[in-house]
């Protein structure tokens, strides 16, 4: 399963600056863990995280369904370019 594309498809609908949204898969020491980083502008990262992390937790929960299909744990981090 392409976790990067799936996460980007979710996140792109929530940001204003769609051109600067980037999702990368990083290497992990544990083969059962997939580490994903979402990079975007500061204002858009604030939207993706939401108040008290509610939006970020919702995105993580959606993505965990995709991870369960292939027995992987997803670790998603949100970072701004600025």
Widest β-sheet, arrangement of strands? 1-2-3
Query: What average pLDDT do the residues reach?
Result: 94
What name does CATH use for the topology? GMP Synthetase, Chain A, domain 3
The helix-strand sequence is: HEEHHE
CATH homologous superfamily annotation: K homology (KH) domain
Helix and strand arrangement:
Layout lengths: L2 H10 L9 E5 L6 E8 L1 H8 L4 H16 L3 E8 L2
Parallel strand pairs: 2-3
Antiparallel strand pairs: 1-2
Helix pairs in contact: 1-3
Protein name: KH domain-containing protein
Pfam families: KH_KhpA-B (PF13083)
Organism: [Clostridium] ammoniilyticum
Characterise the protein shown here:
- The protein has helices spanning 3-12, 42-49, 54-69, and strands at residues 22-26, 33-40, 73-80.
- It has one domain (3-80): GMP Synthetase, Chain A, domain 3.
- A hairpin with a 6-residue loop joins strand 1 (22-26) and strand 2 (33-40).
- It is globular and about 35 Å long.
- The chain is of the alpha+beta class and 82 residues long.
- The protein starts with a helix and ends with a strand.
Short synopsis of the structure:
The protein has three helices and three strands, in the order H-E-E-H-H-E. It is an alpha+beta fold and 82 residues long.
Structural key phrases:
82 residues; GMP Synthetase, Chain A, domain 3; 3-stranded mixed β-sheet; 3 helices; alpha+beta; RNA-binding
């Amino acid at each position: 399963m392409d976790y990067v594309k799936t996460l980007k498809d979710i996140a792109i609908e929530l940001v204003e600056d769609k051109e600067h949204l980037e999702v990368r898969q990083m290497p992990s020491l544990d083969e059962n863990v997939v580490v994903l980083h979402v990079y975007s502008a500061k204002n858009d990262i604030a939207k993706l995280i939401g108040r008290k992390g509610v939006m970020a937790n919702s995105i993580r929960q959606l993505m965990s369904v995709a991870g369960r299909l292939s027995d992987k744990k997803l670790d998603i981090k949100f970072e701004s370019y600025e």
